[in-house]
């Protein structure tokens, strides 16, 4: 895919921000490789090309954080949970929203999909807003090797055999209805079940949930 001048400049700016953040941990070549491959992950399906550099930067930052954890550069001992579903548009995004809201900065959560969709489920966004949690800025994304390897707990919500299996990881399987195609009224019970699961998980991890 040919990049416009604006996209090239945006990616260059993104690379500079990432280099500043990961200075002393990763070199320029690694950072640019992660940024470019992250861009490629979204380029084929995106309907909003102008946002691609921003999405690529956010995903590259997450992947670099994961690699830093795997390589021992991160020693804060915060548990990392990875929520996985098929499209990363509903269940896993709601779980991520609840986890980040309740755990605040005491733990880390990521999400991904085996077949990432093009946008977050609008009914899931509306249902979460009813709880004061805005997931509209999130975006469907795949999981990558370093993200799975960095996670302490991997929660599957319907991705089945497609979910990655790595030795030494704790795996949980939450059986939840897929909110795809449902209206808000039908998504609310799924949302509430996810919240219950997330609260239980935080308790098991010894992470104090926000009141």
Sequence-ordered SSE layout with sheet pairings:
Blueprint: H1 5-21, H2 28-43, H3 52-70, E1 80-85, H4 91-103, E2 108-113, H5 122-129, H6 145-150, E3 153-156, E4 170-173, H7 184-205
Parallel strand pairs: 1-2, 1-3, 3-4
Entry summary:
The protein is an alpha/beta fold and 211 residues long.
Global geometry: globular
- Mean pLDDT equals 93
Number of strands: 4
The CATH first-level class of the largest domain comes to Alpha Beta
Any low-confidence stretches, pLDDT <50, length ≥5? none
The name of the CATH topology of the largest domain is Rossmann fold
Order of helices and strands: HHHEHEHHEEH
Tally of helical runs: 7
Pfam families: LMWPc, Phosphatase-like_N
Protein name: Arsenate reductase ArsC
InterPro entries: Phosphatase-like_N, Ptyr_pPase, Ptyr_pPase_sf
EC number: 1.20.4.4
What does this structure look like?
The chain is an alpha/beta fold and about 210 residues long. The protein has 2 domains: about 1-75, Orthogonal Bundle (Helicase, Ruva Protein, domain 3); about 75-210, 3-Layer(aba) Sandwich (Rossmann fold). Helix content is about 50%, strand content about 10%. It has helices spanning about 5-20, 30-45, 50-70, 90-105, 120-130, 145-150, 185-205; strands at about 80-85, 110-115, 155, 170-175. Strands 2-1-3-4 form a 4-stranded parallel sheet. Helix 4 links the parallel strand 1 and strand 2. Helix 4 (about 90-105) packs across helix 7. The protein is globular and about 45 Å long. The mean pLDDT is about 95. This is Arsenate reductase ArsC. One of its GO terms (molecular function) is arsenate reductase (thioredoxin) activity. It comes from Lentzea miocenica. Keywords: Arsenical resistance, Oxidoreductase. Its EC number is 1.20.4.4.
